Structure formats: structure tokens, C-alpha cells
Amino acid sequence: MSVIRVVLVDDQALFRAGIRMVVASQPDLEVVGEASDGAQAIEVVRQTRPDVVLMDIRMPVMDGLAATEALLVDADPPKVVMLTTFDLDEAAARAIQRGASGFLLKDADPEFLLAAIRTVHAGSSVIAAAATRELFAQLNEPVRAVPPAFGELTDREREIFALAARGLSNAEIAAREFLSEATVKTHVSRILAKLSLRDRVQLVVFAFEHGLA
Predict the structure, then answer these.
(1) CA 47 → CA 113, 143, 193, distances in Å?
(2) Are the C-beta atoms of 181 and 195 separated by less than 8 Å?
(3) Arch. (CATH architecture) of 4-127
(4) Where are the domains of the chain?
(5) Can you give the chain as a three-state secondary structure string?
(6) Are 126 and 164 in contact (CB under 8 A)?
(7) Per-residue pLDDT tens digits for 89-123
(8) Burial of 125 from C-beta contacts in 10 A (0-12 / 13-18 / 19+)
(9) Domain 148-209 coded CATH 3.40.50.300
(10) Could you tell me the pTM of the whole model?
(11) Cβ–Cβ contacts within 10 Å for residue 113, how many?
């Protein structure tokens, strides 16, 4: 059984201790490092090469947003999950724009935290597309020009894109468009590939950034 390596980044030692106990209780998870600010986090992550980083947003010296941005340009970067105290956090939205795999509320249930670590390690995000839409609707940012790649989508793919950008699940899109879920999944995969997007959360971000939401 492969073990998922985790680094904890938070300026509150007591909070880190609690998370460490939860993570260490699992046979498939291991805490390989800790840091109390963003600058220290960059050093620890580059030394320990974890699979997943739990990164607090607001910290002294360097905040989690800047640290995440620095780490995600490294070769073979870890998956980063932001830790925040409230749902509609603009800083969490900006972290997702920069490539974080989602965010968790600090008061999340231990079971949810553990599931989140495993989910991002497997390549998915830990924030639903619908929640992403709600989060990004709070941001008033200038709209970017639509890239040429969007013009390569077929009419059907644009229809699926619009529904996915509204946060609808594959099942909801299938019911609305009278398609099978497998067909919708195929369309979404093609859309992500054409637009060079990682997942449905990034699709929603793309839609908001380019005025296509």
C-alpha cells in the first residue's frame, strides 16, 4: 500500500497538532513536515517532496496564497488544499485560480479532511463546481479575452460547457440534454482537453475569467 505524504502549514501549533493526530491515525497517510508560515512552507515542501499540502491562507511572514503560487511553478509540484475559516473566501478563490486543488473549512469533520486528502491525491478537486461558481460570483474582476481554443469547441460542446459552468453535475446535464451520463462525461473530457483545463472546477474558473459564465 502506497502512503500519501502530507505537509501541514498553519501558524497555530495547536491546530497543526490536531490535524497531525487525525492524519497520523490513518495507515495510508503520513505527515512528513510542518511549517508555521509560507516562507517556511516553501523550504519544508521542497525538502520533503510531499504529495499533498494543507495550506493555511492567512499567516505571518508570507501568506498561503504567495507560498502556493511559488510552489506550483516547481517541477512536479504537490497538490495544495487551502485551509480557511469561512466559505466565501476571496483569497481561496484566488488560490484556486492559481492552481490550488480546492479549499477546506478549518472546522471540517475529520472524516471529510481525510477524504479530501485522498481525493486530491487521486487527481480530483475538493470543491464542487457549484460551490466554485458561488465563490467566483463574489469576485468583480476584469474579463479576459476569450482564447482561440474556445472557438475549437463544437456546438454541442459549447452547450455542455455552459451547463457545466453553471455548476451542473454530469447527471443533471444528462437529464437536461437527454443524453447518457457516459456521453456527457466524454464531452466534458474533450472540453477540458481542448481548453487545457485540469478539471470541472477549473472549467468554472475559466468561464468566469472570460465572461462565459
Answers:
(1) 24, 38, 32
(2) no
(3) 3-Layer(aba) Sandwich (3.40)
(4) 4-127, 148-209
(5) CCCEEEEEECCCHHHHHHHHHHHHCCCCEEEEEEECCHHHHHHHHHHHCCCEEEEECCCCCCCHHHHHHHHCCCCCCCEEEEEECCCCCHHHHHHHHCCCCCEEECCCCHHHHHHHHHHHHCCCCCCCHHHHHHHHCCCCCCCCCCCHHHHHCCHHHHHHHHHHHCCCCHHHHHHHHCCCHHHHHHHHHHHHHHHCCCCHHHHHHHHHHCCCC
(6) no
(7) 677 777 887 788 888 888 888 888 898 899 888 87
(8) buried
(9) no
(10) 0.73
(11) 19
Retrieve residue 75's grid coordinates: 517541477
Q: How many CB atoms lie within 10 A of CB 74?
A: 12
Amino acid occupying residue 117: I
